[in-house]
Amino acid sequence: MNELRIRFGRDYEQPTAVPMLTEAYNLPAKKVIHIVGPIVQYRLTPELEKDLENCYRNTLDMCAENDLKSVAFCCISTGVFHFPNKRAAEIAVKTVSEWLCDNPGKVERVIFNVFKDEDKAIYEKLI
């Protein structure tokens, strides 16, 4: 991010749904993909839903482009970004499932990493 701020100015912010690949350093992973999800300020709109879909799709595309065979997703945009948990999970599961069908063998393992029991229950129903 510092390199991007040097290049584009100190006020540079990562755009929504544009992934950024970095080294994982001391984490038990090869790489880390950072992505900014949409922020729901007043109400959920189709544009925000499309932005969230693009977060998952663009991240999977980046995995394929960099020969990364597994990826773990957090609940993108839920929490302080106010995306409704159930709708976010529906978008995540649908988008990832479609991408995997359209790109067989490019990513072998996808993990939905949840922190709340509420999210765990939602994902278990969807998967």
Automatic annotation (TrEMBL):
Source organism, top-level taxon: Bacteria
InterPro entries: Macro_dom, Macro_dom-like
Record domain Macro: where: 1-127
Entries under PANTHER family matching the protein: GANGLIOSIDE INDUCED DIFFERENTIATION ASSOCIATED PROTEIN 2-RELATED, MACRO DOMAIN-CONTAINING PROTEIN
Protein name: Macro domain-containing protein
Species in which this protein is naturally found: Lachnospira multipara
